[in-house]
Amino acid sequence: MTCDVNLAHFEKFNCFHSGHLIVNEDRKILFCNAYVTELTGFSVQVLIDSPISSLFTKASNIFIDSYVYPLLLKDKIVEEIQIKLTKSDDESVPIVINIIEDNKGLSYWSFYVCANRDKLQTELLKAKKELENKASELYNLATTDPLTGLLNRRELAVLGNKLINHANSDHSNLAMLCIDVDYFKRVNDAHGHQVGDQVLQNLAALLLENRHTDDLVARVGGEEFIILLSDITLENAHKITEDLRIKIAKHILSGVNITVSIGLVVSSKNQIVDYQSLHSTADNALYASKQNGRNRTTAVSYQI
């Protein structure tokens, strides 16, 4: 094919640190800049009139035939396509190509080596993962109790309000248990704070047993815990609470026997509940359990 393009105009592309090619409609190279010869190790004499396919790996040529040229035929432009270039020593190099085609069947290829881009992408992905891990750590620090891994007071209020809003809109019951370890100071005094911490950790594990997905369990103070149960009747909530209190009393936690006092409040389906009043009612019921001898449950209905 005769080329009516003045290739001398393209000599300026020798200044670029990127590859530039002109390819005719027979897919033969009409022009290459100095960067192409430096990168590939092929001379200008070898490259000119050679098929463009001689520059790429077999897999890349399959991709070019099946995707790149059909796309070029349709849209006259191909952008940001990654393939592999073959050098004179048979080493392959990943490149990113951009191609445009004119109305005379000439295509203009521009490419750059993307090894550094791949490296940058890997580094960015690594940095992204590190940031996600850090964000997860910060979230856990902000929302969980560091000793037991349970929700902390603040997060219980946030999630508790969401659970209550759902119950209000769904007209379902809610139960809140306020739990306090009886005479916990005596545990610390007799066994030391390290054992006391272990007792709290083991107690937290017991509180989590057999909980439903929507149930919330939190440590809200030194030896104070709260459990929020959704969609439950007063009768069932009282049974669960008593079973839990008895189970705790029977367990030996880190060599220590403990008991707990519990205040239980349950709302009815037609009541509009708010977190603060639910908590206040359960806390008052807990106070009654402690005043009446401890190691017991005081259950009350929620009053608006």
From TrEMBL:
Per its UniProt record, what InterPro entries does this chain match?
A: Diguanylate_Cyclase (IPR050469), GGDEF_dom (IPR000160), Nucleotide_cyclase (IPR029787), PAS (IPR000014), PAS-like_dom_sf (IPR035965), Rev_trsase/Diguanyl_cyclase (IPR043128)
Presence of keyword Protease: no
The UniProt catalytic activity note for this protein reads: 2 GTP = 3',3'-c-di-GMP + 2 diphosphate
Q: Which residues cross the membrane?
A: none
Q: What is its EC number?
A: 2.7.7.65
Pfam families associated with the record:
GGDEF, PAS_9
Per its UniProt record, what Gene3D superfamilies does this chain match?
Answer: 3.30.70.270, PAS domain
Name of protein? diguanylate cyclase
